[in-house]
């Protein structure tokens, strides 16, 4: 019972955050979601929960490919947008390989790359 209530509260809290967020804050939320999913995948991998690891990696890839990449304005963003697009593609590919080979090192390096971009994005504000 408590767990269901907790999940409902988290969902309402997330929806409120998204509805009240500026475009800049929405991108921060996407970074946070992808980073948390990678962190969770690492924990699952360390505990031998392969199904959980796969689901968490899929969530991270989905956020990167359908969230962060879709926010790029390739016309106005020029070289920076193109470089970010390439970097997002690289991170997603590394996550796929981490999933296929249960590669902890690729998970960690993907997290660090994405976290560096996220930190830079946070500093823009």
Automatic annotation (TrEMBL):
It comes from the Bacteria. InterPro entries: FliS (IPR003713), FliS_sf (IPR036584). It is found in: Cytoplasm, Cytosol. It holds the Pfam family FliS. Its main location: cytoplasm. Keywords: Bacterial flagellum biogenesis, Cell projection, Chaperone, Cilium, Cytoplasm, Flagellum. PANTHER family: FLAGELLAR SECRETION CHAPERONE FLIS. Belongs to the FliS family. NCBIfam families: fliS (TIGR00208). This is Flagellar export chaperone FliS. It comes from Frischella japonica.
